[in-house]
Specification:
- This protein has 119 residues and is mainly α.
- It folds into two domains: 47 residues, no CATH class; 55 residues, no CATH class.
- It contains six helices and two strands; from the N terminus they run H-E-E-H-H-H-H-H.
- It has a two-stranded antiparallel sheet.
- A hairpin with a 2-residue loop joins strand 1 and strand 2.
- Helix 4 packs across helix 6.
- The chain is elongated, with a radius of gyration of 15 Å.
């Protein structure tokens, strides 16, 4: 159970399992150890706690816009580890090319697809 993974000396401590210097490694740990957590969810979680600004949160809105801007040729039917990471690298390269932080590009592409930002 996830709660047990994040308990240190009887106290709940999510950050104890996180490596702030390596969010990519932390994401791999989350995906491998938290049942039901995939790359998108792990990236979103890390972004929300301030550790994932260079990670992509690849959902249908973002994928659609990556196709629109020629970053990827088409929207994949599924996103396994290899495909997710390959698209993330392409998106990161695109972010550098247009000189925008990955987290900002992610939000912009999501907004373009969803049409609104809500909380």
């Amino acid at each position: 159970m996830a709660r047990e993974l994040f308990t240190v000396e009887g106290r709940l401590s999510v950050r104890a399992q996180m490596d702030p210097q390596n969010p990519f490694q932390t994401r791999e740990w989350l995906v491998g150890n938290v049942k039901g957590m995939g790359y998108k969810e792990a990236s979103h979680f890390l972004r929300n706690i301030g550790l994932g600004r260079d990670l992509a949160i690849l959902d249908r809105h973002i994928l659609k816009n990556l196709v629109r801007f020629g970053v990827i040729p088409d929207i994949p039917r599924s996103l396994g580890r290899g495909r997710y990471l390959k698209i993330e690298v392409a998106m990161s390269d695109f972010a550098r090319l247009i000189n925008i932080p990955m987290s900002h590009l992610d939000m912009l592409l999501w907004y373009m697809g969803a049409g609104e930002v809500f909380k």
